[in-house]
Design a protein that fits this description.
Mean pLDDT: 88
Strand content: over 45%
Radius of gyration: 16 Å
Distance between the termini: 33 Å
Shape: globular
Order of helices and strands: EEEEEEEEEEE
Oligomer: single chain
Number of strands: 11
């Protein structure tokens, strides 16, 4: 068995909660980390998801922490199939059970930020949380 405990750091992007409106994560600083995985936990949908009533997960990156641009498909691997304009996932089909989505980021930008953008009427919220797992930290590097 390998030791992952000492190889990874976790940062909360979007704290766990039942959300009914758009939210943007804190800015995640990737300095000195060589591997990044974004895990998004989503509970049962508070509405019947469809193309009008949906949640888009949009990931952006930046080199200065101020000017962010959407990631592209070549920046990612994992569950981000068919992504456009930084939308790594669009929840638009019924979601009757909790699930975890996993996305890998492979570019060298220093900062990441995730937005959960709600479209349509979300009177009942949807449980959601986003955690960034940062791995392969290298030490002895001055910022």
């Amino acid at each position: 068995m390998y030791d992952l405990f000492n190889l990874e750091t976790f940062k909360i992007g979007i704290g766990p909660g039942t959300l009914a409106a758009s939210v943007t994560s804190s800015v995640i600083d990737l300095f000195s980390y060589q591997g990044i995985v974004l895990c998004v936990a989503i509970g049962p949908g508070g509405i019947a998801f469809d193309s009008n009533n949906r949640i888009d997960l949009k990931l952006s990156h930046s080199n200065d922490g101020v000017a962010f641009s959407p990631v592209s498909k070549s920046d990612m691997f994992g569950d981000s199939v068919g992504m456009v304009n930084g939308i790594i996932c669009s929840l638009k089909t019924p979601n009757p059970a909790a699930k975890v989505l996993k996305f890998g980021y492979v570019r060298n930008s220093r900062y990441l930020q995730l937005a959960a953008e709600f479209y349509g009427t979300h009177t009942a919220g949807t449980p959601l949380a986003a955690i960034f797992a940062l791995g392969f930290h290298y030490t002895g590097v001055a910022e």
